[in-house]
Design a protein that fits this description.
The protein is built from 16 helices and 20 strands. By secondary structure, the chain is α/β, with parallel strands linked by helices. Helix 14 (439-453) runs antiparallel to helix 15 (458-468) and helix 14 packs across helix 16 (476-482).
Length: 490
């Protein structure tokens, strides 16, 4: 069965093909979780095989290997699997290989190499494999094309092709809308950072005081009845939480890296089929894993990495029959550190832009807490949409709710999905411009950046909205006067 690409998927596929035709050897396909990266890659595979080329598809976890294999099978792509003692099909033109196995074996020549979750490609094992194919076309797939520490992949890849962002995919119905409940504040000051994220022992040490709210009670209030994935910071914490859920009559299970493969597979299938209500994991389901029915995510582990934050939330946003939305219970306050997955971020091969580290944190759009009703809202809001409290223009002092009750926080005026979630749509709050530039000049500069870097042009619209609090409404002539003197194809 050949999957017919959506127009937005077809557009990025053609951009990828054009870059390879123009001579690029290493290209990243940058799409949010659930946008169809593997489906698009399968069309690349299909085209390569039709021309007599061999294709190597690399992934770093057994769940991703079998998941990618299943998708290729569903799309009619014949292939073999290279992983440990798994039976192989050496004559197949397409091979789905484990990185851990591929680095130890001579797999032969491949004209096309596809790297799933390519933000790991700077590691030694990936580099050893990719260095064997200096003349091959290498396509990287990632929803977060930067390392855990925010640094880019420009030393490995030459081009990056972005598709629609999470916000646009939600509005188009290709991802589900979501609600986030988080504590008013989280304090991880003093926690050590290692490899771009909080060290595992630091997360474990902080669990007693730095995870806010009763996890079971909040899940019973907001997530009961939804297939749930819990992201834990340590095996001990995960097992304790699973025991607590089981004690309340909830069908719950725990998996980690030491869980036997058969038990892991059994738990994942039980969650997908509805026989398991909650699956807690430690470092297994944070990226790449696909379970469309999953509709509630519990963040019980803090992370200093925007990459991991985006990957975890993305697990819940895939569409599924009867699924109308997702719930994120952020007991670790990761949204207060990193913002929402729908926030506009400028990303290229150099990595995340305008990063500012303080205690290991990445600077993100702020969240404001109302001192009267403790509702959470975007930091630029001047009037609380819940109780009408007017924030002081100067001398602000944020007061926090210390009762450890998660509050719903909102990313801004996404009116279409707010209606879908059955919530009241509040009028846009007034907003002071964050620049002294003329609006038309500012918009022209952002359009120029978008065109030079191959971004979707709506990126410029969202940058304008974030700065001026309204959507741009300029005529073509006004903008052309402000653009650099070069030829643009409108």
């Amino acid at each position: 069965m050949r999957y017919v690409l959506r127009p937005d998927q077809e557009e990025v596929l053609q951009k990828v093909k054009a870059l390879f035709v123009q001579g690029a050897r290493r290209v990243i396909l940058f799409l949010p979780t659930g946008a169809g990266k593997t489906v698009i890659a399968s069309h690349v595979v299909e085209g390569a095989v039709s021309k007599g080329n061999r294709v190597l598809f690399l992934a770093h976890r057994r769940e991703l290997i079998f998941q990618s294999s299943e998708k290729l099978t569903n799309l009619g792509v014949s292939h073999g699997i290279i992983m440990g003692s798994h039976p192989t099909s050496p004559s197949a033109s397409v091979q789905v290989a484990s990185v851990q196995t591929a680095v130890r074996r001579n797999l032969g020549d491949f004209q096309v190499v596809i790297v799933d979750e390519c933000h790991h490609a700077r590691s030694d094992s990936y580099q050893e494999i990719l260095n064997r194919y200096p003349q091959s076309a290498i396509l990287g797939l990632s929803a977060t094309p930067y390392r855990l520490d925010g640094k880019g992949l420009g030393k490995i890849f030459q081009e990056i092709v972005p598709g629609l962002g999470t916000r646009d995919l939600i509005n188009a119905g290709h991802l589900v809308p979501f609600r986030v409940f988080a504590p008013p504040t989280i304090d991880m000051r003093g926690a050590k950072i290692r490899g771009g994220d909080f060290a595992r022992e630091e997360m474990s040490r902080c669990m007693g005081t730095k995870i806010y709210g009763d996890i079971l009670r909040h899940w019973q209030n907001h997530g009961r009845g939804l297939p749930t994935v819990l992201f834990a910071a340590s095996v001990q914490q995960s097992e304790e939480l699973v025991a607590e859920f089981r004690g309340a009559g909830v069908a719950a299970a725990h998996i980690d890296a030491s869980t036997l493969p058969a038990k892991r597979d059994e738990a994942l299938k039980a969650l997908a089929s509805g026989n398991l209500e909650l699956l807690s994991n430690v470092g297994i389901l944070t990226e790449g894993w696909d379970c469309p029915p999953a509709a509630c995510g519990i963040m019980a582990r803090p992370t200093a990495s925007l990459c991991l934050h985006v990957q975890m939330v993305g697990r819940m946003l895939r569409t599924f029959q009867g699924k109308t939305g997702a719930i994120i219970l952020d007991h670790a306050g990761n949204h207060l550190r990193h913002g929402f997955v729908t926030d506009d971020r400028e990303i290229d091969l150099d990595g995340l832009k305008k990063r500012s580290k303080k205690d290991g944190e990445v600077k993100v759009p702020s969240v404001r807490i109302c001192p009267s009703c403790y509702a959470c809202m975007p930091g630029a809001t001047l009037v609380c949409p819940q109780c009408g409290h007017v924030f002081e223009a100067t001398g602000r002092e944020i007061r926090y709710n210390r009762a450890s009750i998660l509050q719903e926080i909102k990313p801004g005026p996404l009116k279409s999905w707010q209606r879908d979630m059955g919530r009241e749509v509040y009028p846009d709050a007034p907003k002071e411009p964050r620049t002294k530039k003329d609006p038309a000049t500012y918009y022209a500069e952002k359009l120029a950046i978008a065109r030079e870097r191959g971004y979707n042009l709506r990126w410029a619209d969202h940058q304008f909205m974030a700065t001026f609090g309204k959507w741009p409404s300029f005529g073509k002539g006004q903008i052309e006067e402000k653009l650099p003197k070069r030829s643009w194809a409108w």
